[in-house]
Specification:
By secondary structure, the chain is of the alpha/beta class. Helices cover about 30% and strands about 20% of the residues. It starts with 7 loop residues before the first helix and ends in a 6-residue tail after the last strand.
Length: about 230
């Protein structure tokens, strides 16, 4: 996504102005530049989470280090059955909620049989638990300072208008299963994976492993002979 320091109004203008060039760039990549070997794709690397050995994709060309410029509100710029893994962490909550089924279906389309996804974002259910418990310390001051636990909850869930949906384990499972994924399971951020190694786990962040701030799932596309 665009840099965190950019205001929502400027960010909206950025996407509106550059959406067509981003779409054309993705189409050109898919047609002429995509490698033949299965890809490991990092969706939403941002400014600070570039992963060597992966194809790092983002809409930000101003300050992020990326390999491919693309907008995830458009179809993913990958050929059918050409990706081995998709990874995104605190990305899909920035997409319109109505687009999420399409996004999961598009990852499924692009994955090779037996390929997998690891997707994570803010855990709305755990946030609600902390709201009910009155535990304001669980929430951060990002992006705005709030004194009340309710204000801190709203700050976390909506992120100053940047978050466009509320994620939970059951919702991510529904999205994955409806797209055709199997073996959906929740994983602890930073610690658990059947899909990725330390190169990914080390760029995730979590400070409360009893009540994680992030909900992360992994799932796979069925093998061809299933």
């Amino acid at each position: 996504m665009a840099a965190d320091t950019i205001s929502p109004a400027i960010r909206a203008l950025y996407y509106a102005t550059l959406r067509v060039p981003m779409r054309l760039n993705g189409l050109a990549y898919r047609r002429w530049r995509q490698q033949a070997a299965p890809l490991d794709v990092h969706l939403g690397c941002g400014q600070h989470r570039y992963v060597p050995g992966w194809l790092n994709v983002d809409a930000n060309i101003v300050s992020a280090k990326i390999d491919l410029w693309a907008n995830f509100a458009d179809p993913l710029p990958f050929r059918d059955n050409s990706v081995r893994k998709f990874y995104s962490f605190h990305v899909i909550e920035h997409l319109p909620d109505r687009h999420l089924p399409t996004h999961f279906a598009d990852m499924f389309r692009a994955l090779a049989p037996g390929g997998g996804i690891r997707v994570g974002g803010p855990d709305a259910l755990n946030a609600a638990r902390k709201l009910v418990a009155g535990d304001g310390a669980w929430f951060s001051d990002y992006p705005n300072k709030r004194r009340s636990v309710g204000g801190r909850f709203a700050n976390y869930l909506f992120c100053g208008g940047e978050h466009l949906t509320a994620l939970s384990e059951s919702y991510l499972r529904e999205l994955a299963e409806d797209a055709g994924f199997v073996d959906v399971k929740r994983c602890l951020p930073c610690r658990e994976s059947a899909l990725v190694g330390r190169e990914i786990l080390d760029i995730e962040y979590e400070s409360d492993f009893d009540t994680p701030h992030s909900v992360v799932i992994e799932a796979r596309k069925p093998a061809q002979d299933r």
